[in-house]
Design a protein that fits this description.
Jelly Rolls; Apoptosis, Tumor Necrosis Factor Receptor Associated Protein 2, Chain A; 6-stranded antiparallel β-sheet
Length: 563
Amino acid sequence: LCVVIKVISLYQPGRNALVDPACRWKFPIPYILADSLDLNAKGVIFQAFEMYRLKSCVDFKPYEGEKSFIKFEKLDGCWSMVGDLQTGQQLSLGPSCDYKGTIMHELLHALGFYHEQSRTDRDDYVDIWWDQVLPGMDHNFDKYADDFITDQNTPYDYESIMHYGPYSFNKDPRYPTITAKDPEMTKVLGQYNDFSSLDLLRLNRMYNCSSSLTLLDQCAFETVNTCGMIQNRNDDGDWVRTMSQPGSHDHTLIGQCKDAGFFMNFYTDTGRAGDSAFLESRVLHPKRNLQCLQFFYKMTGSSKDKLVVWTRKEDAKGKVLSPTAAGNFIGDDDHSWKIAHVPLTMDSKFRYAFQGIRGDPANSLGGIQVDDITLAETRCPSGTWRIKNFSEYMKSYATGEYIQSPRFYSPEGYAFGIQLLPNSYYDGYIGAFFHLSTGENDQALEWPAGNRQVTITLLDQNSDVRQRQSFSYSFTTSPTHLIPDSNILYWDNPSKMGTYDPSCDCYHGWTWGWNAYFSHYHLNSRSYLKNDDLILFVEFEDLTPLIKSEVPIKSPVQLRSQD
């Protein structure tokens, strides 16, 4: 029997799994988006769904009259029932609950997980300061017997997206309600960027996930079989699996580990101009008709060297169809690792390949290197911004001084950019602010650009996409938002009220974003500043189709809860 408990959450995270298999969901999970939800929350729900699909076998589908379903509503705070009640159930996303990590957290409750500090053995790892807990909120710090929940034979996880932060439900903002017995671990409690590695292990164990839904391929070349990639025997040379050495390190481990850290290298300082070599993937079987190939590459040869990404389909009998060039990259003077995205639209089994082409061997100082490949069935980012030597900006930039991004374009054709403050007005944080720009499509676009969702993501550059804890914030533009003390619409064409930027020969509109986007302390953790590069993804997506999203429940459902 599934116990009906409403678990209240803050937008800082917490978790632990129900023993009873009757409370487990069957996939895909039907969902309803109530019209009461903020439009921004609806967009972020879909972002959370994509994280589950990328990192597990958990899937979701629109409700079509099923007995079990989740109805997302804007009620009193952030909370969820625990497990599948098999009667339909609510998941509340009230004010300030529209964060990707918050929604992933609440969905883990719905999937059968309690807070990490609810574990039977929690007192070995954390202290609860009961005298600092708000009256009536004690139940949020309950722990459960091991015949009711299971830790699935995994250690206590301070980094869990299901762990409360130190100041959750506190009476006095100066004093914590929960601290780790190891003081260093208190600093990591309450992260809500993404799943921890143990979150994923437990989720995938609980639901017997042997693979994720949308991750097709990834490779860091740390194993000798190079992830099943093969050389073409009919070309002019080979790609060589190469170990890091001083002056030529990999991207995965950035040369920090002895006898480890490999990448694929095509030498362009030998042979003849025009010689090439192909490195080809194994056969892949897509489920969607869009993919994004992400990889890191480095060109250390001549400016005439080329890297070409190819795809080729195979029919049901294994016959190879005509290959298609999907992306081209040329040599440059930047001999450091760069990120690349190549959008694909493959709808049947296929391979992708990297072709290295020698441009000028006599003037080459190295070659073409590739590392940390990820192929997922998702859309590539609309805007990708790599900022080199970011720690130097943090040292040299004054409070409020910003770095201006290049101009990007959304799928609809809107031009936009962001301003990044290495030292924002909120001490100890970087700030991130979005703006529209004038662009080549303005005459054909809808103005003001309302009901569009802005998402700025700070990439965790871990080579394994499943282990990344990338951070993102989102907001949604309002078509009626006015510039202060004026009748000018905030998201109107920037040509009407923007500031001219000669670097793009364009106008930038007013900015909107976050002074406390990401802390300096956390920026120096994980792989947010690998090679001292900060990488941001920026999206500007139309949410107009989600304004009216609620569908009627086809049979009466009695939803019960208890605090």
